[in-house]
Design a protein that fits this description.
This protein is an all-alpha fold. The protein is built from nine helices and no strands. The longest helix is centred in the middle third of the chain and has 28 residues. The protein is elongated, with a radius of gyration of 19 Å. This is TetR-like C-terminal domain-containing protein. Pfam families: TetR_C_11, TetR_N.
């Protein structure tokens, strides 16, 4: 079953969707999930509230579509020719998003909502699963080049890059600068090369 608002329209319908999602993102960043209201979103987007209720139905349906759109609009993965270069690009993209006043507040609101709302959590999980799949090939290509040992879990390597950045964003409050992003990429690369993410315990790391 399709999530509300998940059918990709064209023409005027596409413009309405873009306006509504932009308004929903603004409202989330400003006021948080608890205060997200479809009528307010319709007013911000300058569209009829009937249109918003008919198409998205609920706040969670709207947030799910917003996350889908954010995944679609994300920059494609980098192709630098080296694992550390690719992972550094990934880390810098994550850092830039979380450090941005609007985007950071938006993600914070969605993550907070996901802790208590099942549908929002599911939508968030789909968003991150999609982003991880986008970056997995950079690890697979590193394995093919001989940079990493056979049996390396590509998804775990990608997760290892962003995990310390999200920790700073959500828990510690430590600075999120490019040096931090680069360090996260370097650490994930070193760990992967040492065999920390090998699925098969029999596989040998590259020394």
């Amino acid at each position: 079953m399709e999530e509300p608002g998940s059918i990709r329209p064209g023409g005027r319908t596409a413009r309405v969707r873009a306006a509504v999602l932009r308004a929903a993102g603004d409202a989330l960043a400003e006021r948080g999930f608890a205060h997200l209201d479809l009528t307010d979103v319709a007013r911000r987007a300058e569209v009829g509230k009937t249109t918003v209720y008919r198409r998205w139905g609920t706040v969670t349906g709207l947030v799910a579509d917003l996350l889908t759109d954010m995944a679609e609009q994300s920059l494609p993965r980098a192709r630098t020719g080296s694992l550390e270069g690719d992972l550094r690009a990934n880390a810098r993209l994550v850092r830039k998003t979380l450090a941005d006043p609007r985007q950071g507040a938006l993600f914070g609101a969605i993550i907070a909502a996901a802790t208590s709302d099942t549908r929002t959590a599911e939508a968030l999980h789909r968003f991150y699963a999609r982003r991880i799949r986008e970056w997995v090939p950079c690890v697979e290509e590193a394995i093919d080049r001989g940079e990493l040992p056979e049996g390396t879990d590509a998804e775990e390597v990608v997760r290892a890059v962003s995990a310390p950045l999200y920790y700073r964003f959500l828990a510690s409050g430590d600075p999120l600068d490019e040096a931090t992003a680069d360090r996260a990429a370097k650490a994930a690369t070193a760990a992967a090369r040492a065999g920390a993410y090998i699925k098969d315990e029999q596989a040998r790391p590259i020394l």
